[in-house]
Amino acid sequence: MGFRCGIVGLPNVGKSTLFNALTETQAAQAANYPFCTIEPNVGQVAVPDERLDRIAAIAKSAKVVPTQLAFVDIAGLVKGASKGEGLGNQFLGNIREVDAIVHVLRCFEDDDIQHVANKVDPIADAEVVETELMLADLESLEKRVPAAAKRATGGDKEAKITASVLGQALELLREGKPARLTEPKDEEEARLFRQAQLLTAKPVLYVCNVAEDEAATGNALSEAVFARAKAEGAQAAVVSAAIEAELVAMPAEDRAEYLESLGLEESGLARVIRAGYTLLGLKTFFTAGPKEARAWTFPQGAKAPQAAGEIHTDFEKGFIRAETIAYEDYVTLGGEAAARDAGKLRQEGKEYLVQDGDVMLFKFNV
Ligand SMILES: Nc1ncnc2c1ncn2[C@@H]1O[C@H](COP(=O)(O)OP(=O)(O)OP(=O)(O)O)[C@@H](O)[C@H]1O
Question: Residues 6 or more apart from 123 whose CB is under 8 A from it?
């Protein structure tokens, strides 16, 4: 489906370590990013979901296919990016292409690893990156808002709405706040706001990269980041990239024990992937049979034919109905046949709003 999370951060904060762990653990096929000369790496990463394994066990599926999310390693942030210095313009362009930003912040102390500003201060680091993004948005809106206002006086209704919603964003940026805090009045404002593709309107997940012995608890630095995230309408997670790198290097059967010895229930990567998925407002439906059990991604608010279209365009075009079982029913009753007998297999039509966890079988006509 092509939803992408871009990994950004200052030099030496642990971006590559995290990205490599993400892609290695999934044995991803890293592909080159087609649109730019600095070619940030893209990794397709499987989204961990226990529900899929339970469904596969019940359906006795031969194959289990998770849904995927793309992570893009966006290289090269330098101070002054918004002014087009160095790799700046490419960097901003790369961010424009992603749907959400995973912002890695160094929260570990290690005298051997140099910090660009010679001090470990994730809040100051976050500000460096965010200031560049806000300046880029500010510069673009300083032009776009007056232009839209001018068109509005000429009677252009859409321009009037654009001027209003982007004007609100401009005010926020002038106060040093991200455009994400803009509150569109209605669906039309929301649509035009999305269309404006502002960099600081993209959802952000801060990844606090902590030392190995702080992965379970976090530390004072990560706490400060969590507070900042809350104030900005962003998300945050604690991860130790060092642990993740070790985990992917060890045999799969040793990982659980290692995690347990560190007081962790699951890998930080699993949390980052899931958080990225949630951040994008993505939901999952399942298909299940003896051949395969598979998880599919759909955007929140999708109707049944659109979900069917995730599998094949023919399913969408020729959609008749969707035989649907809620995940809980599927699991508690023990599969499709039992759910059908219990009257829990619903025949859903074109207007059905697909729910997270639905197990679906599409009937279509081509
Ligand atoms: N949680 C951690 N604890 C200790 N060391 C870490 C941790 N995370 C990363 N490192 C180390 O920090 C160094 C920098 O990491 P990495 O190369 O991933 O950073 P980067 O952000 O990709 O840098 P650049 O942008 O310069 O490529 C590496 O030596 C890495 O092993």
Answer: 224, 225, 228
Give pLDDT, residue 28: 35
For residues 61 and 288, the answer to whether their CB atoms sit within 8 Å is yes
The residue to mutate among 12, 19, 72, 262, having the most atoms of ligand 1 within 8 angstroms of its beta carbon, is 12
Q: How far is the CA of 242 from the centre of ligand 1 (A)?
A: 8
The tens digit of pLDDT for each residue in 159-190 reads: 999 999 999 999 999 999 999 999 999 999 99
The answer to whether the pTM exceeds 0.90 is: no
Ligand 1 center–CA 200 separation, angstroms: 25
Between the CA of 103 and the centroid of ligand 1 the distance, in Å, is 14
Domains of the chain, start order: 4-49+59-120+203-279 (3.40.50.300), 130-200 (1.10.150.300), 301-364 (3.10.20.30)
The ligand 1 atom at the shortest distance from the C-alpha of residue 76 is: 25
| Span 351-363, pLDDT tens digits | 999 999 999 999 9
Within 10 A of 71 (CB to CB), how many other CB atoms are there? Answer: 28
Asked whether residue 13 is marked as a ligand-binding residue, the answer is yes
> Which residues form the pocket of ligand 1, taking CB atoms under 6 Å from any ligand atom?
9, 11-17, 108, 110, 113, 209-211, 240-242
Nearest-angstrom CA–CA distance, 318 and 298? 19
Structure ipTM: 0.94
